[in-house]
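User: hey, got a sec? need Rrf2 family protein folded
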Amino acid sequence: MFSKTCEYALRALIFIAQQSGNGSRTGIKDISKGISSPEYFIAKILQDLSKKGFVQSAKGPNGGFFMDEQNLDVTIADIVREIDGDKLFSGCGLGLEQCSETHPCPIHDQFKSIRNNIREMLESSRIRIFADNLDLKLTHLKV
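Assistant: Yep! Here you go:
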């Protein structure tokens, strides 16, 4: 459903949010290990997300990535839109260029309902919720 970049970004942000709960800053090696991702790939993703304000970073011996209160309230939909664009929320289920209410594809009506449910779920899901669920051991990011 998401690109690999988006999957890693979401996992990394949730991991960083959990670590930020106790005031910690987390380095690339720990993030990569914590979410089972390639170090170089996650470094590039986080560099981009930091520039765009989704995560904070600090350099130096006590540096690393962290999230402030504002970052913790970002929705999953915001991150998906930033990385993968709006296609998940508005695209055709069959990938057709022309698909609309007046010119529908064969699965248009059924897919529109599913797409709207996904959009609502992602727009109501905040990074903070997922970090809290990790703390409570209700979910996991790595097997």
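Quick note: The chain has a mean pLDDT of 93. Let me know if you need anything else on Rrf2 family protein.
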